Amino acid sequence: MAAATSVVLLDRGNNTTCTINLHGATVVSWRVNNQEQLFVSKAAIFDGKAPIRGGIPVVFPHFGPWSYGPNHGFARVTQWGVEKRPERLPSGDVEAIFFCTDNEWTRSIWHYQFRLTYRLILREKELHFIIGVYNPSKDVTFSFNLLLHTYFKVPDVRRCQITGLHGCTFIDKTRDMVIYQEGREAVTIGEWTDRIYQNTPQEHIITNVVSGRKMRVQKYNFPDTVVWNPWLDHSKDVPDLGEDEYPNMICVESGHVSSPVVLLPGTAFEASQILQVM
Ligand code: TA6
């Protein structure tokens, strides 16, 4: 099935690659010196319809359950186009650009014109994401959520620490959306966790990712950081996730979700994320 197998490869050399599945422009692999950095479930479905369980799906224009359309919006289940094929830059880095626009189906769910542009740059130990949302309308304003639903691959989630969340308020989705304040310098995960941390700083470090290394997450114009792991109990609610897989994933997601972005006619919004293996 063409839609299910349509992938684009960025190859920087030295076994450093990034693979994007055009279904949702989902980054399904990022290898640094041949080491995979992203988690993709062995039960992930690649039928060109379901969202891909793992990697980095793009959440737009809505985060979470949505009465109008699919959970987390339609961008992750839409076939994206290639605006610029992978190209080597003078620095040796490799860049590609993807896009997604409204169509009859998206307008039947969400009645707005839009254009998303997604630029990826693969560096030696970094992956850069620059995502733009453009409102081409002459007179209609719309509002939206945007998030990069990043699944990192880890040997054991219980050994990971996430910095940069101390003092931040968070909406706890495991406790009826009650708002708390984080008291820990470094956040660890030892149970079902589903939190929207608000107004987080530009940088987080996640420890003990692949090969015991650290991952630096830098973000711009993404005020929120979502931290998610379904643990055993809630893995059962996710059919395309094996029950034994939760220890090997940690979702740390840069987004604009606890408040919407309001986009005036003829204007654009841009946000970015840099992932760096340290
Ligand atoms: O980002 C965390 C979250 O919103 C969780 O609430 C959890 O449900 C997860 O995303 C996965 O959602 P999905 O629609 O991919 O099953």
UniProtKB/TrEMBL annotation:
CDD domains the UniProt entry points to: D-hex-6-P-epi_like
Pfam families: Aldose_epim
Catalysed transformations (reactions): alpha-D-glucose 6-phosphate = beta-D-glucose 6-phosphate; alpha-D-galactose = beta-D-galactose
Pathway: Carbohydrate metabolism; galactose metabolism
Origin: domain of life: Eukaryota
Keyword tags: Isomerase
UniProt EC number: 5.1.3.15
Gene3D superfamilies, alphabetized: 2.70.98.10
Enzyme class: isomerase
UniProt-listed InterPro entries: Aldose_1/G6P_1-epimerase, G6P_1-epimerase, Gal_mutarotase_sf_dom, GH-type_carb-bd
Free-text function comment from the UniProt entry: Mutarotase that catalyzes the interconversion of beta-D-galactose and alpha-D-galactose during galactose metabolism. Beta-D-galactose is metabolized in the liver into glucose 1-phosphate, the primary metabolic fuel, by the action of four enzymes that constitute the Leloir pathway: GALM, GALK1 (galactokinase), GALT (galactose-1-phosphate uridylyltransferase) and GALE (UDP-galactose-4'-epimerase). Involved in the maintenance of the equilibrium between the beta- and alpha-anomers of galactose, therefore ensuring a sufficient supply of the alpha-anomer for GALK1.
Family, per entry: Belongs to the glucose-6-phosphate 1-epimerase family.
Name the record gives this protein: glucose-6-phosphate 1-epimerase
Organism: Nesidiocoris tenuis
